[in-house]
Structure formats: C-alpha cells, structure tokens
Amino acid sequence: MWMHSFRLILLYCLFMPVAYSSDGSVNSLRETEKAFSSVEKLVSPSVVFIKVEGKKTVQPTIPIFPFDDDFFKHFFNSPFPEYPYNKEPPQQKFRSVSQGSGFIFDIKDGLLFDKTYLMTNNHVVEGADKIKVTFKDGYEYEATITGRDPQSDIAILEIKSDKRAALKLGDSSKLAVGEWVVAIGNPFGFSHTLTVGVVSATGRTGVGINDYEDFIQTDAAINPGNSGGPLVNLDGEVVGINTAIFSRSGGYMGIGFAIPINMAKEIAYQLIDKGSVTRGYLGVVIQALTPGLADAFGLKQDQGIIVAQVTKDSPAARSGLKQGDVIIEFAGKPVSDIGSFRNRVSLTLPGQKESMVVIRNAKKYNLTVDIGTQNYEESLAQGESESTDQLGLTVQTLTPAIARKYNAKVGEGVIVTQVKPNSIAARVGISAGAIVLQVNHKPVNTSVKFNTELNKARKKDKRVLLLLRFDNEQRYVLLKW
After folding, report:
1. Most buried residue, 159, 363, 390, 479, by most Cβ within 10 Å?
2. Contact at 8 Å (CB) between 231 and 182?
3. 106 an active-site residue?
4. 447 is catalytic
C-alpha cells in the first residue's frame, strides 16, 4: 500500500512543475514572442536596405619630416621627394559605398500620395550619386532624393513602385518609459534584422548629434546600418527613426537614439511638399537657467530659460521680449529646457502668433510674438555656467584702438585682458577678449566701475552675475568664490 502511495507522490512531483510552467510563465512568454513575430511580419516588408554610392574627397595623410631645418634638409633630404617639406599633398577623390535602412511611410491625405516615399536619415544619403533600395523579397529599386534636412537628419526618398505597403505612423508623444519597442533594419549589412527592447527615456536633448534634438532613448540593439530604420511599437506603428548610438567600441552598448516620429513627419511633409523645411524664428540667444542663476535672478524655481540677447528688429524684439527675461511658458506649455524650446519654436509656422509668459524683475508678463522665418544659418544659442573657488579676472577700459580691434564700442563694457589658469573665470569659459557689459545687471563702462560693482558683490554674498559678449553673442555667467 505504501509503495503505491509513494509512486503516486513521485508521479505528482514529476509532473506538477511542468503543468504549472505551462499554465503560467511559459504561456506568457509565448504570447510575448507571438507579439514580436507578428510585428516583424507586419513591418519588415516595408523596410528597405539602402546602399549608397557617392564621391568623397580626402586629404592623404603624409608624414611631415620632423626637422624642418636647412641643416637637416641638406644632409637628409625629404623622405617623400614627391611632396616638399611641410606641404600638404593634393586632395584625392574616390568612390565611397555606405549603407543604412529606411521604410515606406503613410503620408497624410492630399500630399502627393500617388507616389511611394521612404523615410531615412540624412546622413545615410548625404553626398549620394546613386541610391539603391532592396526589400525583403529581394526586389531592388533605384531611389531619388525628394528632400533632405541636415538640421534634423531627416531625408525623404522616392521610388517608382505603387505595390508596396506603407507603415502607419504612431504618436510618439504617448510613449512611456518601459514600453516595448522593436527596431528593424540592416546592421552591418545583415538585412532585415529585428531587435527588441524598451523605451529607456524620452525627450533627450543636448546629445550633440543634430541641431534639433528630442530623442527617444532605447536599449533595443542598434548598430551601424540601422540608421534610418523604423522603431515601432507592438501595434506595428512607427514611433521613431533609429539614428545613432552611444558607443565607446563602435557597436551596440545598450544606448540608442531615435528621432520621434511626431517631429520627423512634420519635417517629411514639408520636404515632400516643398523640397525644403521652413522653420519658425524668434531672434534670441538663450541659455539654461541653472539653480545658481535662478537664485541670482531672484527666482524660487529653476524652471525656464534665460534670454541672454535679443536680436534687433527680430520677432522677439517686436514682441517686447527683453534681455534678462526668463521664459517660463510658450504657446500655453511650460518651458523647462533649451532643446525642447528650440524644437517648439522651429516647428511653429512663420506668421503664426504665439503667447509667451516671462518673468522680469520678479513679475510675470504676458507677451504675444509673431513668429518669423528662420534662415538656415540662424539658430538659437545656449550656454552654461560653472563655478570654482577663485575669480582670476582682469579687465581694462576700452580705448578707441582696443575697441576697433575687438569690434566693440568705447563706453560700452570693459574688455577682459587676462584670465588666470584654473580660476573660476577660466572654468566657465571666459577668455581674454571677452567684453563685460554688466555686473549684477548694472552696466559697466570703465574698469573702476567694474571693480566697484564687483566689490559690492564680494561684500554681499560672494557671487557676481556677468553679462558678457563673445564675438557677436551675449550670455550670462555666474561667478562664485
């Protein structure tokens, strides 16, 4: 009897874990893998492998003889007789071949929708003489460039085919950190590779890749060749364009960046419609409002951005915006950082009126700005402040000769003549030749006035807010000691 019971218990123990796994976690994993597989089947047919041929000009690297001296020339001659001493060799041209990814996308009604357009990165096709795109089924097409926008790194291609399905564009503003995303592209030339990850962060700016940044950060594996491919959600909707990676090895290290599709599609529609992008223009130089600067401006919050300079006769100037204003709201939404503010202004249609809320002398002001049109060279600038324990700054009253040399005006500011190494002034980037226009919001036009205002700050709280001009750009710098 006990042997029979033992056998039953043994059988129960053997089969119970399998039944439990089958009903629980294993089934859940299988449902997840089915979701990824269905995304691949839906998306991959619309993704292309892009091969680009072009011409590149390079300067050959030729060792320069280290002893450029008549004595050594006489006895040793040049080790490279075809190139004289310390003279650069002529530039050479060669054919280059590069690769990337792209995808057919669904465009809005009425926008030349009888054609087949592909979205990719500008850096994938820049300088191209010949572009070929290959679909998963092996069909190959020659593509032409409809338009490129280097500032956002978006490019639109066109192919002669009306039988290809377009991917639906999602809403990148609804992405949440931790949400599943799938990247499909051609890393290292391995066609139509799928990788899976999550949204690691959104709204990444200041990465230094593009002029206009609002990146989605993901840990879905992205490698060289993925550029221009789609980042999609589990519904198969494109939420981003895979653009760059953060890497110390040249390969995947867990951090990839994608341009949000909400930004990309606005650029794409303009490129299709006009072949170029028209951006909104405000006409200000702005910088981040650090906690130290917020305190110096008498603000209790560190939200907003500082207006360091207002361009004469610009939309900002006509709206009443002034130097030293802190912008806390634009178009009804809070302003928290430079990157997102620049993007919002640039994507505002020229001629459109937008509201702004600024803080000026501890009071709020409501302004209305008529957005202008930005030239390619015009951009919003930014600056940062840093502090150390030393000051190390020497200034001089502007003389007519010095003013002419530095394109300054006599009586308008004082010139920095010396900055000690490793001092606070050096650490925040101040260098000889900079013009100090204000000290703690007070205009200074002589070295005596500068020192007077500086001494006041020393006695009060050992910090000083300077308004400086570097070349033609002005910005605030907070010094502490």
Report:
1. 479
2. yes
3. no
4. no
The reply to whether 227 belongs to the active site is yes
* 172-177 LR contacts (CB < 8 Å, sep 24+): 172/202, 172/216, 172/239, 172/240, 172/260, 172/261, 172/262, 172/263, 173/260, 173/262, 175/199, 175/202, 175/216, 175/233, 175/239, 175/260, 177/201, 177/202
CB 202 within 8 A of CB 216: yes
Which domains, ranges and CATH numbers included, belong to the chain? 2-32 (no CATH), 33-58+91-277 (2.40.10.120), 281-374 (2.30.42.10), 393-480 (2.30.42.10)
- DSSP symbol at 181: E
Residue 173 has pLDDT above 80, yes or no: yes
Q: Would you say the pTM of this structure is higher than 0.85? A: no
Q: Which of 44, 152, 191, 227 is catalytic?
A: 227
Helices 25-43, 2-23: axis angle to 10 degrees equals 30
Catalytic pick among 44, 101, 123, 149: 123
Please check the confidence at residue 8 and state whether its pLDDT lies above 50: no
One-letter amino acid of 231? L
**Catalytic entry in 153, 192, 325, 340:** 153
Q: Are 342 and 380 in contact (CB under 8 A)?
A: yes
Distance of CA 263 to the CA centre of its chain: 12
Encode pLDDT of 389-398 as tens digits.
Answer: 357 787 888 8
